[in-house]
Amino acid sequence: MSKTLKILLCADDDGIMVETIKNAVSNKGFDQNIVLVRDQHDTDTISKEIVGADVVYPDKAVITREMIKSAKKVRLFQCGTGYDTIDLEAARDRKIPVCNMPGITAQSVAEHAMYLMLALAKNDRDYRQEMKDGKWNRGVSIELAGKTVGLIGFGNIARIKARIAHSLGMKVIACRKNREKGNEGLDFVDIVDFDYLLEESDIVSILIPLIKQGSCRTEGLIGKKELEKIGVAGLGWLINTSRGGIIDEKALIESLGNNVIRKAALDVYETEPLPEHSELRRLPNVVLTPHIAGDTKEALILRYTLIAENSIKVMNNERPRYIVKELQGFI
Q1: Mean per-residue pLDDT of the chain
Q2: Is 226 annotated in the active site?
Q3: Residue 329 has pLDDT above 90, yes or no
Q4: Of the four, 19, 113, 182, 233, which is 20 to 30 A from 299 by CA?
């Protein structure tokens, strides 16, 4: 007799999520019960459905200690690239693995970060629509060749972006925690100190995870002082495709309003969805996208396949792939 596998997905179905997971789980000896909670802020429904779930994919939903305490059956919290919305201590106390997906969205996020940089260079003009409207509004943009891009972080995403930027003729510098790893064979990348990067880059691109505590804390890493350093250098542009909490958003809005940061391009925000009343929506020198950097068809299929594969592993009492570093050794 088949066992029931209940997977709680805190996300809207994009047309391929449920189908991909069902296909990957089929013929593995389990009856599937896939539950979608489309509103990631619907804590009441998530709290109700998590009680009987075997596997939870929080996506961007917050999973609290109280939810984890009530989740008597849960064997796995399968996150995406980031896992900052889940109470890791509570998961550790229950010995429930929390896994992420390192590298799966790297190509997609790197390409999106480059798209945002090109959008800034081209003044974020919707020429296509202007031409359709019968207009002929020309403008002066800039070349990226010869400009310096500073990458905060040098993981999978940053290394891909470094290659793309280098191919455009840009100078690439990066800072990373483990400087002894160097540029990992990318001889065109100089590994530099954090402050040097802020002061010497035309464009600063944030490519690190959000960490809220400990010696590696990145929450609030970019505040007023750091924004002023970026503003002094070159173009004074800032791009964030990581997590909104890495930047002090209030300070960023002020620096954009005062033209300290001349341009910014953001895919992530302190509060998501970005509130309708956010000042960021009204500033003319900001390009905004709705946290879609990793949402390409290719990356999503890899993501959903991993959810299914890790679900089968834990149901078969096997160790899942990519347990987050904070829980390794405890689980």
Answers
A1: 95
A2: no
A3: no
A4: 182
